[in-house]
Design goal:
5-stranded antiparallel sheet, single chain, mainly beta
């Protein structure tokens, strides 16, 4: 799953809803919008402020 976070508590993540791939915009955990394109997301969030969250694999401990 891909996820981006921005300033002031905005989050954008990629989801599948009714077989369609959408971008979900949330603010402080509250649903703001489902967007079909990055242009739609830009109505709610400054795209330049988004940073992708990457899950790194955990290293085994000795």
């Amino acid at each position: 799953m891909r996820k981006w976070v921005g300033v002031n508590g905005y989050e954008v993540d990629m989801i599948v809803l009714d077989g369609r791939q959408l971008l979900r915009v949330r603010h402080l955990g509250y649903h703001i919008a489902f967007c079909g394109s990055v242009t739609d997301v830009a109505r709610y969030v400054d795209l330049a402020e988004l940073v992708e969250v990457v899950d790194l694999p955990q290293q085994p401990t000795a």
